[in-house]
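Table S2 (continued). Query chain:
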Amino acid sequence: MFKGVYVPTLLTILGVILYLRTGWVVGNVGLLGAWMIILIAFSITTSTALSMSSIISNIRIGPGGPYSIITRSLGMEVGGSIGVPLYFALAFSIVLYIFGFKEGLLYLFPGFSPVIIDFVTFLVAFSIVFLSTDAAFRVQYIILAIIAASLISIFAAGLDHLPAPEIIAGPMNATFWVVFAIFFPAATGIMAGANMSGELANPRRSIPLGTIGAIATSLVVYLTLAYWFAGNASSPELTGNFNFIFEQAAVGWVVVAGLLAATFSSAINSFVGASRVLHAMAEHNILPYSEWLSRRSASGIPRNALLFTGIVVSGVLLLRDLNTVAPFITMFFLISYAMINIVILLEQSLGLASFRPIFRIPRIIPLAGTLGCLFVMFIINAVFSLVAVILVALFYYILMYRHLQSPQPYGDVRSSLFVALAEWAAKKAMSMPISQERAWRPNLLVPVENPADIYGVADFLRDVAFPRGSVNIIGIAIDEVRDEQRDGLLLLQEDFRMDGIYAEWTIVNADTFENGVAASIQTLKRTLFSPNIVFLQLPPETGKIHDLLFIMQKATENFKGIVLYAGHPQAALGRKRRINLWLTGSCMEWSPGMRLENCDLSILVAYKLIINWDADLMMIAVVDDKDRIPEAEESLSMLIEYARIPAKNVMVVLGPFTDFLEDAPHADINIFSLPPDPDIERIREIVRKTGSTCIFCRDSTQESALA
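Corresponding output:
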């Protein structure tokens, strides 16, 4: 805990800003303003650390720190989309620390070459980390001692006077948030210990204790140092002289040594952290050349990941100017912190039995951490924040299309998140008045004994249900469930899902097919997403007519619509270009404000097909009196207008319509209303006369073509 978490986290927080910007903050906003900035910044990082501690007490965290935490909860796509920018933020921050080290050394030796200082510092830090992680940790003890000596030298100088009223209050003007943005990176670095999670003996204990301890220690140091500045200088002195701390300390060169030690240790810690995050992602095959990047040396050091990180850092050093990329460093850190808070907020809200952390925190803590991170991001730089979020989203979509296979034995909580959202929506829907007409969508119940019987009509089912409907396939097992039946239903489900249709399947044991279907209709009647259409096929054998009529009766009794598919053996669905919709009897006797009688479902099915087929619709009205033709034409025009059906052509014919079937315009499919007492032989005759597949629809009274 002390060597692997507390010390690296503390040394990363106590960095350049502690020595060169804390006094400047006090000079700009006063002591009270500086304390407020420090407390706000540390409250955000503390909430993140508490969230991280709670998560770690619930899971066995793997290598990669925050990457591992996010991956375990939200999947590798989200973990990788955060891990990639986090890695580059850590790598680029190494360059910032090297530049900070250079500034301190140039204060002592102004004649040195800046370029030589940068690359010598880089080589020394890289060599230490490359040779041994333990060596890097041992160097940290020396650095910690130097920083402690520098703080002693500062506070040993004492106070010239008690802070004056004008520096206590400070100007507190509109520059407050500008000053906050400059100071906030000082509070980052809380993941320095968590990044080493793969090499800790007991990360569940070490990371929470070490991180919280380092934050508490550094908070005391920053608050005390701010008071020291307020008691030793005026506002103009603090804002105009960044080297004031060196000049006022008891031994100035010791404070400079502290600055050098702090920046050098931060560079080492970032080297270690960046390589571990890169190595963890490579082990999950997220990156190109993952096999090479995931290799470790005999001593367990991920040297290939370190070599790649060294190449990245040396390349950025050659730029000599990080102004264009530096804002992204803070943004990516803040996005990572926000995701840590979001993870535990989701886990707490889902109420899963698997979330039982030993270290529990109230929900307000991760909520405050999430909002705080987002607020700070857009306060610092709204444009860079937006670009950073877009980059993370881009990484996510790239990884999503790679279909990564999670190595986690227990999966993640993404499916539970969507289930929770569905449960919330279901409860809201159940609390509202029942009105299905506006919310209607085709949810098909498809009973089948042999899955092969559905293959020929699967395209039709898809085209009726797409894009927001569903298909519930009910396998009826008369004797026993057969493997080929189960495999066939599973294959049908996968095919529908590949077409973008929500599909489910189950098998029902029954003594007869019709009883199995009736039991399924009754069982699903009261479910929230209950099927509203029973799909049936016209049986070829006359012996099953009674079964078909029995199922229709049960469907009607349970307020289910019926779609009877009477397929033509040769024509099938034709070329899917022309559809005839036949309207007879009461379908033509309506007025605005009235319901159509047993015509709504046939109109809606026709509409779904012409949209998904990009087909032409011919609406054919049938009347039994020649004098009613003008009235029928007007009624048909009104129906097209009120139902918003894109009919290309209309026709009114004198009935009975069966006499006109052979002379009707050719269509790939003809759609009719299904009467309460259908004549099956007449249906077969209609199929023969039209020379096409015919669809017969009976309303459930829960749909409306005029809604």
